[in-house]
Amino acid sequence: MATDRNLPTTFERRGTTVPLSQPGFKHTRVREYEFGKDRVLEAVMPNYSGVRRGELTVIPWTDLKDRAAFSERDNHIIQDIMRLRGKQPIDPIYIRLLCQRADAIHNPDEDERRLAREQAENDRIDRESVRMSCLAQLTRECGISRGDAFMSKANTTTLLDLINDAQQGDGFDVRMLIERVMQFAAERSGSTIEEVRDWMDPLVGLIAPFGSVPAAGEDRLDGFLFTQHRNLLGFRKSLHHHTANATGDAAQSIALILEVCDQTITYVNSRLVHLDSLLGRFADMFEEIDGSLAKLKKLLRDVTYALDGWKELIDIWDEAIEGIGMVGGEQALLRAVDHILLYLPVIPAREIRGANPGDMMERERTRLTLVRSMHSWTTNEMDAELQDRVEAGRNRIELESKWDKD
Q1: For residue 66, what is the DSSP state?
Q2: Where would you tag: which of 41, 195, 258, 396 has the fewest CB atoms within 10 A of its CB?
Q3: CA distances (Å), 109 to each of 100, 234, 359, in order?
Q4: pLDDT tens string 219-240
C-alpha cells in the first residue's frame, strides 16, 4: 500500500489527537510510553521547518506550553493531560472529555461554551437511553426463552412507557418485570441478581459511545462514535463526487485519500459487525463477564483510534465545499485536498496485519463482504463505486499472487 511507509506500529504510538485552538497546533497528538522506570509523555506535531513534508516534531509534553501563547482553554487541556500521566489511558474518548470540560468553562466563545455544556448533558441522557435499550434487549431475550409474547416484543419505548405509567400510579408493576429479566440473566450466568446489576454499569459505559441497541423497526440512537463514522461515509461520498474533474497531482492526492478512507471504513465496519453480534446475544455477555468486557474494550479502542483525527479534516473539506461557488472556490478546494493529505490518519500497519507481516493489510482492506453488508449499523445502501474499487483491489492481489506462483 502506498501509504504504508514510516507508519507508527500501533495506535498508541501514533498518539491521540488533541484539538488545540492555537493555529498550527490543531493536529497535535499526545502519546505515552514506558522509558525505563519512567512514563514519558510526548507531543507529536507536524514539522513546519521546511524539511520533507510529512515529518514530525516530537517534544516532551511539558515543553509544549513554551511553543506558543496558548489560550486559557488550551492551557487547561495541556495541564489536565499532564496530570493523567500513568493514571488514566490517554485515548480519544478521554481527550474528548477533557476538551469538552475545558470548552464548557474556558472557551472564549460563549456559543462554544454553551454547546459544550449541552453536549455533556446530551451524553448523560444518551447513556441512560442506551441503558434502557440494553435492558429492552435483555427483556426480549428473556421473553423468547420463557415463551412470553409480550416480553419478546419489548423495545426501549415500551419500557419507558411502563416506567412512566408506574410513576403515575398505574397498576402495572414494572419492577417485577425488571426483576424477572435480571433473574433470567443471573440464571444464564450462574451469578446473583446483585452481580448482574453491578455488571450493567460497565457494560453500558462501553456500549454508549456506539449508540443504543434497537429492536427490529426501532430507530437507533447513534452514539458519538457512530456519528463520526457516518460523517466519514458522507465525506468519502462527497470526495468521490469531485474526482471526475480532478487531474494530475490533485487526482493522485484524491485517490490516495480515498484509499485511506476505504481502509478506515472497512476496518471500522468489521468491528461494528462484531459488536452487533455481541449485542444481539446480550444475555450471553453475563456468562463470562470478564471476557465480554475485554471484547467490548478492544472494540471500543479500535474504533475510537481508527476514527481519531478525521473530524477536523472533514470540517476543512465541508468548509471548502460550501465556498465552491465563490471566487477562488476551486483553489480553496485544492488547498483542502493538500491539507487533508498532509494529515491523513492512516491506520498503523500492525493494527491491520496483527502479528503477521505480508499482505494481511491488503486482504483485510479488500474483504468485499464487509463492505457490502454494512449490517444494521448503517443505512444498508449499497455503494456500487466502493464495491468496484474493492473488487478491483481483490482482483489485483489475486493476479499478483498468480504471478508469484508462476
Answers
A1: G
A2: 396
A3: 13, 28, 48
A4: 888 899 999 999 999 999 998 8
